[in-house]
Specification:
It is built from 14 helices and no strands. By secondary structure, it is an all-alpha fold. It has one domain. Helix 1 crosses helix 4, helix 4 crosses helix 10 and helix 13 runs antiparallel to helix 14. The longest helix is centred in the C-terminal third of the chain and has 23 residues. The two termini are 27 Å apart. 40% of the residues are buried.
């Protein structure tokens, strides 16, 4: 699996350690060990060995070529972009999602939002978004994959370097969990939500960072996020369920327009950034509403 999934696991684990006193008394046995309704094999035409290998390869290719959103949010924060809660998917929306697809996609969205909130130290918002992410994780039966890391997060949560070092451990366990349970489609939907949200969020925040020689690298990174869409489309070619096909078509349309507007990092002018944000907003609104 990807660093994007790892980031989601880490942030939710961090939130568990921060707010565990607010959620004591819960019964972990309430979550079923196996949720047959969420089995990928019930939602795609086939999941044979060849398809599994292809999906795993495309995940690995994406991971090898892209930075994690944790890193990108950190860079944006370091350039003093202001905190804007209005850019986030409202935490109250978590109770509105009924389908597995919407829950999976928005689990990815919320954990990018959690990353953003965490850097800015917005504790009340962190609690709200932690609760939203926790609800979706429980609904999707994926909280078991990160619960085991709560103690380590609690011991290291004040040390950013230590937290980042835990990414690899969370990544490996999450990867094993999802593959063992054949949750490839679920993982792809979580990934899509994370990728779309980090593009939407970073483009919005980039508008508040006047370009200089010192911050040129953040413009480079935001421009290189175009690769996210390419890799996501390539991955989604493996799926034939209705939601994934519709999302892939929307992403193909977005990529075509994005490529026409922004051909190089020098094209990331305020006007073009606004145009690109509008492209992502169309897709994002369909996913979060």
């Amino acid at each position: 699996m990807l660093k994007f999934i790892s980031t989601s696991i880490i942030l939710t684990g961090l939130s568990i350690s921060i707010f565990s006193s607010c959620n004591s008394g819960g019964n972990s046995n309430e979550v079923a060990n196996v949720d047959s309704l969420l089995s990928d094999s019930n939602r795609i035409d086939s999941l044979n060995d060849e398809k599994k290998s292809s999906i795993e390869f495309k995940f690995a290719m994406t991971e090898a070529n892209l930075p994690s959103p944790f890193e990108i949010v950190n860079d944006i924060y370091s350039y003093n972009a202001p905190f804007k809660v209005e850019l986030l998917n409202p935490s109250k929306n978590a109770g509105n999602y009924v389908s597995s697809f919407k829950k999976e996609v928005n689990y990815g969205v919320y954990n990018i939002d959690l990353s953003y909130i965490n850097f800015y130290g917005q504790n009340q918002e962190l609690l709200n978004y932690y609760s939203a992410a926790k609800k979706l994780a429980k609904d999707l039966n994926i909280n078991q994959a990160f619960d085991q890391f709560a103690n380590r997060f609690s011991q290291n949560s004040s040390n950013k370097d230590s937290v980042i070092a835990l990414v690899d451990h969370a990544f490996a366990e999450t990867d094993n969990y999802l593959k063992k349970n054949e949750r490839y489609l679920a993982a792809s939907h979580v990934l899509a939500g994370a990728l779309i949200e980090i593009n939407y969020l970073s483009l919005n925040l980039l508008k508040d960072i006047p370009k200089t020689a010192e911050n040129e690298r953040i413009y480079d990174k935001v421009y290189n996020q175009k690769l996210y869409i390419y890799h996501l489309i390539n991955l989604y070619k493996e799926y034939t369920d209705k939601e994934s096909v519709e999302l892939m078509k929307s992403l193909e349309s977005l990529k075509k327009s994005y490529d026409e507007i922004v051909k190089s990092k020098d094209d990331l002018t305020p006007e073009n950034i606004d145009k690109t944000i509008s492209l992502f907003k169309v897709i994002r609104d369909k996913l979060i509403n």
